[in-house]
Each structure stands twice: as C-alpha cells, then as structure tokens.
Amino acid sequence: MKERQEITAKVTNKLDVIIRATRPGVNLEESFYAINWFSTKVEWLYHFYNLLASKSVKKIGGTAFFKAKVTETILDELQGRRELILIVRYPGGQNFKALLESTYFKIVSIFRVLSVTDFTFGFTHKIESDPNSKVEDGLHYAIHHFKTTKKADETLKNIQTVLPENIRIKYSGYTIATLNSQEKDKAMSQIPNLMDGLYIFQSPEEENLRTLFKSDAYQTFLSTFQSSHISLLNRISI
C-alpha cells in the first residue's frame, strides 16, 4: 500500500484541518491512537461533550481506549503537566477526516472549545497495550510522557529492562503525526503536541508506581530523555 503522509479535512469554506506525518515511512491510512492531553475550564462540560461526541466517533469506527485524571505530579519538566488524558483508537486518517467533516461533530465540538484549555494533541502508533484491564479492576495508573532526540519507538521498548513484575503497561506509543489547522490565505498552525512518546503504567498498588519512579534503575532510564513528565492518574469510565 502506498504511504499516505498528509490528509486534509475541509471543516469550513475557510478552514482546513490537516493530519501530517512526522517522518517518512508513516502511513496515515493505518490505524492509530489519538492522545488528547489537556486541562479544563469546566470539567463537567467536557465530560458532557465526550458523551455527545462518542456517537460520531463510533460511527466512523473509533473506540475510546483510556481516560484518566491527574491526581499527583511526580516530575514535570518543561511544563508538561495537564489535568486529563483521553486516548482514542481510530481505524485510520480517512476515518478521522470523516469525523472532522461531520456536521453533528462540528456542532457538539462547541462544547469542547468552551470546556478545554491548554489542549495538546498527537497521533501515535502503539508499541504495547492491555485492552483487558477495566476501571472496576481497582488498578492504579501513571503516565510518563517524554521528548527525545533518539527514535522514540526504539526507546519505548527499553522499558522492559527496568519494569518490575508488579507493574504492567496499559499503553505505550510514539508520535507519528500531528494535527494542524489552516485558515484561508494564512500559514498552517500546528496544535501543540508535548510528547515524542508515552507510557501508561498500571499496578495493583499505587506504592509500586512510586517505588518504580524513585528507583535508581528508573532514574538512570530518565536520564536518556530530553525531558519527561510523570503523574499519577485516576482512571475514569468511558
């Protein structure tokens, strides 16, 4: 299949939204996971928006994978902290384009604009995930997102050298595309994306996560990144 590295959605007569690959070799026709990492002005209104928007997401084959709220920040370099994370799987760029061009989705997105602040967004390819864990399992979660000068997909695989048996990976992935907007007769503007890659960890005990991040092995691992953010999470039903 020929690589597709840019896909444009016509949102209005004067506004295009462009999915653009971050490097050669990425095919935007393949499935990917969208990472929404943001804070809110009115949190309940954002959750209401999620409820309304889920209809459009499901219609184009999308699936909400993980949603959580930050409860405590352990490490925050370069102001990488936000309040909420939402990870959604899409079958591919054409499906996401169809979502953006949907009249219903454009209408309900007004609630997102009203409720969200410091919004960052990127498309990732999965390295590893656990689709079976549930909110009801009572597991504890944490996020570690990072910037790196190395290949993020290779870096993500190195976690197995420092991860104990009592901690598993809910999701790990690396950025493969960004989302950009372009108004008529104006330059393209990228929606901020703070990360080259991320881990979502899960464990039966919160203390296991704290112990991991304080360990000498993990501190050495952290030194391989340009910058990192680590927060504990409270998972939310979706």
Shape designation: globular
Number of strands: 11
Strand order, largest beta sheet: 3-5-4-11-7-10-8-6
Taking the alpha carbons of the first and last residues, their distance comes to 34 Å
Largest sheet: 8 strands, antiparallel, barrel
* Count of separate DSSP helical elements: 6
Given as residue ranges, the uncertain stretches (5+ residues, pLDDT < 50) are none
Word description of this protein:
The structure is a single chain. The mean pLDDT is 94. The protein has an eight-stranded antiparallel beta barrel, surrounded by four helices. With 238 residues, the protein is α+β, with helices and mostly antiparallel strands. The chain is globular, with a radius of gyration of 18 Å. α1 packs antiparallel against α3. The chain contains six helices and eleven strands.
Write the layout of secondary structure elements.
Layout: E1 6-12, E2 15-21, E3 32-40, H1 43-59, E4 63-76, E5 84-90, H2 93-101, H3 103-115, E6 116-129, E7 140-147, H4 152-157, E8 168-183, E9 189-190, E10 197-203, H5 206-214, H6 216-222, E11 227-235
Antiparallel strand pairs: 1-2, 2-8, 3-5, 3-6, 4-5, 4-11, 6-8, 7-10, 7-11, 8-9, 8-10
What's this entry about, in short?
It is built from six helices and eleven strands. It has helices at 43-59, 93-101, 103-115, 152-157, 206-214, 216-222; strands at residues 6-12, 15-21, 32-40, 63-76, 84-90, 116-129, 140-147, 168-183, 189-190, 197-203, 227-235. The longest helix has 17 residues, at 43-59.
